[in-house]
Amino acid sequence: MSKVLIIGATSAIAQATARIMAARGDALILVGRSEEKLKAVADDLLVRGAERVDFTAMDANETGKHEPLIGTVYEMLGGLDTVLIAHGILPDQEASQKDYDEAAQSLNTNFMSVVSFLTPIANRFEEQKHGCIAVISSVAGDRGRQSNYVYGTAKAAVSTFLSGLRNRLSKSGVAVVDIRPGFVDTPMTAEFEKKGFLWAKPEAIAKGIIKAIDKKKDIVYLPFFWRWIMLIIRCIPERIFKKLGL
């Protein structure tokens, strides 16, 4: 049995991942914005075999509550083995490029709140000398594109932060997993009408996340073929890339 904290637990990917953890008999604490949704998820996970499920409703941007939350989680579970950070928002790119406040909201939610959670978690894991931190980033952070560069900026910052954190915590036996999904068919992407073969279901991404956590991977692209897609995109010269209109 693993003791697991999931932040952003009502997201489609987090729910799919939690269902696999529940079936393995893990003890879970869920964090999300909606208490009603958290209760529904918790009830489902208990039926699926979770050792225990508790939940706390919290806005990720309430950073002053993050460190006390981590302390409470340790008290409730008697320790912690795995953390999955899965919260985030998909901003309106056009609105964000016209209004700084819109951009700042996206950057704060998708990056700064992640740093706020990771700081006390990393310190605890470093002290206990074991554990796995898994964070859902995105392939959007691999290169800035005009269609989503505000979102991509936050995700690139997350990946850079995780890289440094991984380097620091590796000496203490702590794994830091950077999860980079491509297109995923979730409520957050419901506005996208055309979803072709590159799109994956949350359940497929969840299986990849569990495998990455179990094997303590450093960086994982999900589905796997996004590693090669993004390699090609990163290799396109800037003078050509800026003309593509991506």
Q: Low-confidence runs (pLDDT<50, min 5 residues)? A: none
Query: What percent strand?
Result: 15-25%
Spatial strand order of the main sheet? 3-2-1-4-5-6-7
Radius of gyration: 18 Å
Mean pLDDT: 95
The helicity comes to 40-55%
Annotation field: number of helices: 9
Order of helices and strands: EHEHEHEHHEHEHEHH
- Class per helix and strand makeup: alpha/beta
Largest sheet: 7 strands, parallel
What can you tell me about this protein's structure?
- This protein is 50% helix and 15% strand.
- It is of the alpha/beta class and 246 residues long.
- A seven-stranded parallel sheet has the order 3-2-1-4-5-6-7, with helices on both faces.
- α1 (12-23) packs across α7 (202-214).
- The longest helix has 29 residues, at 100-128.
- It is globular and about 55 Å long.
- The mean pLDDT is 95.
Question: Keywords for this structure?
Answer:
50% helix, seven-stranded parallel beta sheet, 7 strands, 9 helices, 246 residues, 15% strand, alpha/beta, globular
